[in-house]
Amino acid sequence: MKIINVKAEHNYQVEIGVEFSSAIKQICNNHRKVLLLAPASLIKLFKIKESKNLFLLPTPNGESQKSAQFLDRIWRKAASIGLERSDAIIGFGGGATTDVAGFAAATWLRGISWYAIPTSLAGMVDAGVGGKTGINSGAGKNLIGSFYSPKKVFIDPHFLESLPKRDISAGMAEVIKCGFIADYKILNLVQEDILDYPQLISRAVKVKADVVSKDFKESKLREILNYGHTLGHAIEKDSKYKLRHGEAVSIGMVFAAELSKELSNLSEVAVLLHRELLRNFNLPLSYSRSRWNSLSVLLMQDKKVKQSRLRFIGISKIGKPVWLEDVSLSTLAKVYERISK
Hints:
This is 3-dehydroquinate synthase. The protein has 13 helices and eleven strands.
């Protein structure tokens, strides 16, 4: 088992290599009542049953669970079972599930304990770690939320054995992102014939843990974790979430690399490496040329926009993030042409 420590508003551990049923048992032993949120398909697949102190609430699939309507259902379920401040919520599923579980825990009784048991690769290396919780709204993705860390994160790599290839690839976008912003070794590992997922997960989690421990509430440094996400989030919403988060981020990273070449002298070799590695996992590299006007509107709703000025995270070389401030729409449109079809 690999343990990675995270420093935030409280310190917690990410345990990599723990069996999920033993994790649930451990949580139930530490709390009088536990509410587990998970997609119905996962509850059925892994034969999760209610017990004397474990209660289940099936979630909708994907991003649809990150809504005010479902959040209200969680609150009503918490009320019906008498969930108290000493009790806990578990988010068992992909990143959307851990996002809404964490936000429900942050808001129920002004804050109770919660645990993340991510079942997707993206959830393991990104959404389940770091304490960003939230839901979506008509105004945009993740605009309603809080910084509220889990009490512990349990990662069981065996979940990857039953994960569809498309979801593995989407998660690899977040892994590759960590390689480009901080850990070149990851970029070597993802090119091996047989992937060492436990090591890739550990290294990606370590990148995120190190950044979060230095800047929990994203005053500046934590923004580097959004490499590829600024355009990625806009594309994700524009696609009406038909694209997986990692698929949209893949396109966003290619764009960020091209923008870095334009504004920070990133080498052509590094730009091409983005395309090569992402293509190896059948991830999309481009988006429709006709959608630029829609995307430019969505970009202005990004959380990193300050005083109506667009800001992007780029890299000047592999492992060296840079902040691209007040980027003009004309520059963005010019660079978008390179990744549009």
